[in-house]
Amino acid sequence: MKKVGFIGLGIMGKPMARNLLKAGYELVVCDSHQSNIDAVCEGGPAHSAPNGAAVAREAEVIVTMLPNSPNVRAVVCGPGGILETARPGTIVVDMSSIAPLAAQEIEKACREKEVRMLDAPVSGGEPKAIDGTLSIMVGGDKDVFDQVYEMLLAMGSSAVHCGAIGAGNTTKLANQIIVAANIAAVSEAFMLAVRAGVDPHLVFDAIKGGLAGSAVLNAKAPMMMDRNFAPGFRVDLHIKDLNNALDTGHGVGSPLPLTATVMEMLQTLHADGYGREDHSALARYYEKLTGTLIQ
Q1: Phi, psi of 172 (to 5 degrees)
Q2: Can you say how many angstroms the Cα of residue 176 is from the centroid of all Cα atoms in its chain?
Q3: Phi and psi for 208 in degrees, rounded to 5?
Q4: Which of these, 136, 147, 143, 81, lies nearest to 110 by C-alpha position?
Q5: Radius of gyration of the chain (CA)
Q6: What is the DSSP letter of 207?
């Protein structure tokens, strides 16, 4: 398995595809922006195809990395989609973050065409996509997971089989709840420090090695203090993920009061025009409330 299809070359997909090229895979790629295609194709043996059906004519393993459930459904099941031409035994590895129920529905359509599918969302944002150290959480048949495990490790430092189809995205929703609540807590704590007259840089140095230390604190607190909200992971994408979490929670009877609160904070940022900024812009919510900057 050295030729891989890759559909979706955005902030995450582009560096992930480049890492597959570095690992020796040949790619056939598809994206709505020619500049993204060019950026990948200049990095190794890769060429473009106009749609999912054209990708499936060439590749027996196809990775999709798309914004949300409707995009994945269209690329896999819609006109010009993967299932139009995919041969029996083709493997679709959807690495998008979508609703678990949507993953199950798309997998059912694949199964009817004798196509195998995994849901394999990732965590780590653009920096870890670039350096190939993403955490990959996978749902689907274990034997299919085993077939693509080596490929997944070309893009991530870990790939864990979490259960049946949909389990990957359920795991990702749990991840996104923890990340969102953590960023909100960091914003709240650092605003407290600033309002109390304590330098937030010193607070960061003092607490990062203790129990409050985390990958989120290390990655997002410096961005807040530098007022650098260039997206690694956009506010609007986190809104999408928390919408999926809330819908899933309601469906299975799991209460999500913290998630709902952070969702309202993110929605406020979106309404204020910050939806395309990094989710560390949750600091702006507290700055709006207090009229004070975290810096």
Answers
A1: -65, -40
A2: 9
A3: -65, -20
A4: 81
A5: 20
A6: H
> Residue 240's Cα: distance from chain center in Å?
11
233: its two tokens: 């992971």
Other beta carbons within 10 Å of 289: 10
The three-class DSSP label of residue 75 is helix
Q: How far is CA 27 from CA 31, 55, 61, 199, 280, in A?
A: 13, 9, 10, 49, 33
Q: Which of 144, 143, 126, 124 is nearest to 134 (CA)?
A: 124
Residue 1 pLDDT: 60
Q: Is 172 a catalytic residue?
A: yes
Report DSSP state, residue 226.
H
**The two structure tokens encoding residue 112:** 């009817």
SS3 178: helix
Catalytic residue among 14, 172, 220, 240: 172
* pLDDT mean over 97-110: 96
Q: Is 185 left (phi over 0), alpha (psi -120 to 50) or beta?
A: alpha
Query: Is the separation of the CB atoms in 28 and 46 below 8 Å?
Result: yes
| 105-119 per-position pLDDT tens digit | 999 999 999 999 999
Distance, in Å, from the CA atom of 257 to the CA atom of 177, rounded to the nearest integer, reads 11
pLDDT digits (tens, 9 = 90+) for 180-215: 999 999 999 999 999 999 999 999 999 999 999 999
